[in-house]
């Protein structure tokens, strides 16, 4: 496996506020910065988590925030919540709307409820011209239908923790989205996903932890943290078949461009 520890990187999707007790944010960031972390995007999943993301971003110069309602929380969507989310979107250091999207892995929330929450967040993203952070699981057909039926922001956004097939990847790329890959690509059973990576242009790829979830090999079973990004980045480099410095620097620039940071 190619080493990636010498390369600079941005964790494009993290939840520092969800790390377990004992993971202090400054120390967690410091460990990752020693290995090349230059910035991190902390992602909101409901109103309180979005407020926490903003607070963390205000505390650290190299941390940025998103605000949104995860599809698993779509049953909380209301006019009042939409208004509050709209106000949060205008906050300093907010760089995206989400994570939003569709998740049909469970029967609840109801699909129509998820459709409404997603559509409402697309409208907020367009209002502030902020990219969308998309969560998609077992729902690509309806997700692409909804995305195509709306005006999108000038930087449409990113499919975070992408696990779809090549067809879904191409449809997302055709809409102007980036694809972000997590530690899942290091798993033994992710061979098909690694082959998708080999077909995606490197100027459309991001890398993420989704910490505290999905720790990459060789850290499986542990709490994921940004310091583990090099293990995921090394697989991205390997599957593109291109020089490591080119892949890493391109992914870094992609992330800066999407979120307009640094």
Written description of the protein model:
The chain is an alpha/beta fold. It has one domain (9-259): TIM Barrel, CATH 3.20.20. Helix content is 40%, strand content 17%. It is built from 9 helices and 8 strands. The chain has helices at 25-33, 47-59, 79-89, 111-128, 140-149, 166-174, 191-197, 229-240, 244-259; strands spanning 9-14, 37-42, 63-67, 94-103, 132-137, 157-159, 177-181, 205-207. It has an 8-stranded parallel sheet. The radius of gyration is 17 Å and the shape is globular.
Strand order of the largest sheet: 1-2-3-4-5-6-7-8
At the first level of CATH, the class is Alpha Beta
Largest sheet: 8 strands, parallel
- Looking at CATH, the homologous superfamily is Metal-dependent hydrolases
Features of the shown structure:
8 strands; 9 helices; single chain; 17% strand; 262 residues; alpha/beta; eight-stranded parallel beta sheet; TIM Barrel
Short description:
The chain is of the alpha/beta class and 262 residues long. It has helices at residues 25-33, 47-59, 79-89, 111-128, 140-149, 166-174, 191-197, 229-240, 244-259, and strands spanning 9-14, 37-42, 63-67, 94-103, 132-137, 157-159, 177-181, 205-207.
């Amino acid at each position: 496996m190619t080493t990636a520890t010498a390369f600079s990187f941005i964790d494009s999707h993290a939840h520092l506020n969800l790390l377990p007790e004992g993971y202090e944010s400054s120390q967690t960031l410091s460990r990752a910065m020693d290995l090349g972390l230059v910035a991190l995007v902390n992602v909101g999943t409901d109103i309180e988590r979005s407020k926490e993301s903003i607070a963390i971003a205000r505390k650290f110069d190299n941390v940025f925030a998103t605000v949104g309602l995860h599809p698993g929380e779509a049953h909380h969507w209301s006019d009042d919540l939409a208004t509050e989310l709209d106000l949060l979107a205008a906050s300093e250091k907010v760089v995206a709307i989400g994570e939003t999207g569709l998740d049909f892995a469970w029967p609840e929330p109801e699909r129509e409820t998820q459709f409404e929450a997603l559509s409402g967040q697309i409208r907020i993203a367009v209002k502030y011209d902020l990219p969308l952070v998309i969560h998609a699981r077992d729902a690509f057909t309806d997700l692409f239908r909804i995305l195509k039926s709306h005006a999108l922001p000038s930087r449409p956004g990113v499919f975070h923790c992408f696990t779809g097939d090549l067809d879904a990847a191409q449809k997302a790329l055709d809409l102007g989205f980036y694809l972000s890959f997590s530690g899942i690509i290091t798993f033994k059973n992710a061979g098909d996903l690694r082959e998708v990576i080999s077909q995606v242009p490197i100027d459309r790829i991001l890398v993420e932890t989704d910490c505290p979830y999905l720790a990459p090999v060789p850290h499986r079973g542990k709490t994921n943290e940004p310091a583990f990004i090099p293990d995921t980045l090394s697989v991205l480099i390997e599957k593109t078949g291109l020089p490591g410095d080119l892949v890493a620097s391109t992914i870094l620039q992609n992330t800066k461009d999407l979120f307009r940071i640094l």
